[in-house]
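[job 0417] fold request received: ABC transporter substrate-binding protein
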Amino acid sequence: MKRKKIIAAAAALSVIMAVSLSACGGGDSSEGGEQITVAHQYGMAYAPFEVMKEQKLIEKYYDGVEVEWATLNSGSAINEGFASGDVDVGGMGVAPAITGVTSGVPYKIAANMSAQPHKIMSNDDSINSLADIGSDDRIALVNIGSIQHILLAMASEAELGDAHALDNNIVAMSHPDGMSSLISGSVECQLTTSPYVFKEAAEEGIHEVEGLQQVWPDGNSFIVMVASNSLYEENPELYQAVVSALEEAVTWINENKEEAAELLCEAEDVDAQTMLSWLNDPACVYSTETKGVMDMAVFMAENGFLENEGPSSMEDLAFDNVQGN
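[job 0417] inference complete; emitting structure tokens
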């Protein structure tokens, strides 16, 4: 019963979060040239896409392509875009990507993008571990089925013996809204990622709740790049251009962190020096090699987060150029 409820909630959320992508359009443009749409969400986890966009790296590797960049509000919305054929490439959390592939959304993982710090933050001095969270305490995270939800479930299984022990504590909120609610005291906890964990740590009365590090160590995949099956199969040269562009963007960020901080700081409304300190956090890792994806997929399959059978290997989830696990 619990499995069915999770699946039903995730399906309902997908419908709610779906957005119209009629303005986007993969494939050939009306002028006869090739066009692809790249969809992503907000935050420094998607920094490689910002570099690709700013430096026109896809265009560098594939002459004549027109790249449209679409910023959407959830992995569910991006999934809708792939399902309708309006999105060709996307960046999303590992968990929604696993759900999408196993549910038949026509894409696979094309590369890793980034790992970022994930933490449970609290404004209640009495909450220092998951065991301290009471039935009336609320935990803000972005949505049911998100990577934050899966991480909470993984930590709950490890510490409390039940992956779903804290499901009823969850309140779905965007990262910014969750941070505002945590600071105001409207919720007791928030499970979030960068840059919000950095901003919240600087607030008086906010502290970290232990529990995530043991189940999802620093460096494990957070955001992956996915590409449509049609792009991979019908235009392998353009697919490879996108992969090469991402690889160059990741290398550039790692080798030019001060310049990257200048590029990214305005979007997060901080100065470049603050952004540089965030980029230098050991848990902030930009790499095209996946890490921990199969561990998460197995956990999701075993605990009712997947409607269909879970993958048996990375080959079920990723294209053959992807390195990692």
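[job 0417] notes: The chain is about 40% helix and 15% strand. The CA atoms of residues 94 and 224 lie 6 Å apart.
[job 0417] exit 0
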